[in-house]
Amino acid sequence: MAIKRILVYPEGCLKQVAKPVTVFNDKGLKVLVQDLADTMYDAPGVGLAAPQIGVSLRVAVTDVDWRSEDGIKNHQVWINPEFLWKSDEMEIGEEGCLSLPDIYGDVERPNAVRLRWYDLEGKPYEQDFEGFQAVALQHEFDHLDGKVFIDYFSRLKRNMIIKKLKKKYLS
Ligand code: NI
Questions:
Q1: Measured between alpha carbons, how far is residue 22 from residues 59, 77, 78, 108, 117 in Å?
Q2: What average pLDDT score do residues 123-150 get?
């Protein structure tokens, strides 16, 4: 078990496009996923992507239920995720991010998606998601493309937030 430091935007590899995983069934990959889960639960949060702990690989974990329902931890692992389809129907919801402490704002996203991803052994999966789960997955996988939710804001608002984060956490 290892709790890693969560990078603050725009630190480190948070603005980079992460590389796909090419070696599955690998000790290093298992350790990375466990570190992501440990760090997410400790934060506490409902999702965490590898670039947020300084690893530029297309890996993320989520657990959207553990804080609201019975508290049972059961993280889902997403490796090399890829959206096959996104709905035309959009939904506006408030988002926050562990890499942007105390920053919240409304983001409009497709409210349903079809996803392909791989597990730790390299087995492929395909499934549809909607509502909060669909939104959470889009937020997490944006991190794998070097994007964060404030990229959906105006340049003015985004620059103000970055200035504030730099002053508070990165100076
Ligand atoms: Ni985030």
A1: 11, 16, 14, 32, 13
A2: 97
**27 alpha carbon to ligand 1 midpoint, in Å?**
25
Catalytic residues: 140
Q: For residue 100, how far is its CA from the centre of ligand 1 (angstroms)? A: 8
End-to-end CA distance of the chain: 30
- pLDDT value of residue 69: 65
Q: Is the pLDDT of residue 138 over 80?
A: yes
Distance 96 CA to ligand 1 centre (A): 7
What pLDDT was estimated at residue 67? 79
**Residue 136 C-alpha to ligand 1 middle, in angstroms?**
9
**CATH code that applies to domain 12-87+110-148:** 3.90.45.10
* Residue ranges of domains in the chain: 12-87+110-148
Q: What is the pLDDT of residues 23-45, one digit of tens each?
A: 999 999 999 999 999 999 999 99
